[in-house]
UniProtKB/TrEMBL annotation:
Catalyzes the transfer of the diacylglyceryl group from phosphatidylglycerol to the sulfhydryl group of the N-terminal cysteine of a prolipoprotein, the first step in the formation of mature lipoproteins. Pfam families: LGT. It is a multi-pass membrane protein. GO terms for molecular function: phosphatidylglycerol-prolipoprotein diacylglyceryl transferase activity. It is found in: Cell membrane. Pathway: Protein modification; lipoprotein biosynthesis (diacylglyceryl transfer). A 1,2-diacyl-sn-glycero-3-phospho-(1'-sn-glycerol) binds at residue 135. This is Phosphatidylglycerol--prolipoprotein diacylglyceryl transferase. The chain crosses the membrane at residues 20-37, 49-72, 92-109, 116-134, 178-196, 208-225, 268-286. The keyword Glycoprotein does not apply. The keyword Membrane applies. Keywords: Cell membrane, Membrane, Transferase, Transmembrane, Transmembrane helix.
Amino acid sequence: MGTLLLDPIAFSIGALKVHWYGLILGAAALLGLLLVIREGKRFGIPQEFFMDMLLLGVPSAIIGARIYYVAFKWEDYKDHFWDVFKIWNGGIAIYGALIGAIICAVIYFRYKGYNFWRIADICAPGLLLGQMIGRWGNFVNQEAYGGPAEESFLRNNLHLPDFIVNQMNVQGTYHHPTFLYESLWSLVGILVLLVLRRQKFLRAGELFISYFIWYSIGRFFVEALRTDSLGFEGPAWLASLINGLWSPMKALGFEQGFLDPNYGNVRVSQMLALIIIIVAIILIIVRRATGRAKEHYNDPIVSSKQTFEQVDVEAGHPSTAVEESAEPTNTTIEVEDKKE
């Protein structure tokens, strides 16, 4: 059976070609934003705040993703510097995107007077939703797939539909649909976060931290299946440790994808995933132990700038409501005096 490839171009407007990848990423950002706006309404945060956040966050994420990727593949770019800016040729990393987006968020939230952890909590499920949908862009482009896999394994063991199995036939060889594995893991994670955020024990910041823990666990196991991983040369014991932690996947019939030895023996994303999980758990413990996580997720969210503005207005210009409320009080006292 021949390879069935989807046309990566959705439609054309004259010489302009609109790619499915761009449409999918756009839909991912929009649906993620809608989920965030809906939750923000519960706390009285205007939707314009989140729309501006998206307009600033998306470019920051793209820049961060590109810098992260180029940094680990500098040998390929140092003699072709202008290729660094050619993101349409591929080469972005999700962890770099998160770093760029977080740096932007810290600055933007502080500018607006909001606590970073409170707003980040609201954004967590939306981030995961965006990642879940965005991975299907890799499917259309037939990229970011895993190592070779038997067609029978994909059809009979995993029971995948024909359109996915056929798209994973790359030049006559079937591959693991790692985009699908990560997308499904994100879907389950969204449900977990939606349930978790309604629990009374959840403190401010812990939903956002839980998002990182969940995503990193899934990324650790999916990353080893891929054939395009960034890598570095680490000590033998570290490579053995990571391979040992991943070994349960072998019992399920999975095999690791090829890692170019020229880049090293440890996959960057796997190493980073382990670090994030450990740091995140420690952060939750430390924030609770030191009292930095006093607020709960469901506590009201107030911008410090709004509070200061209200205080300034009330101090300089007493509101009409306060002036009017004084009259009934005096009247009541006079009535009571007459009764006596």
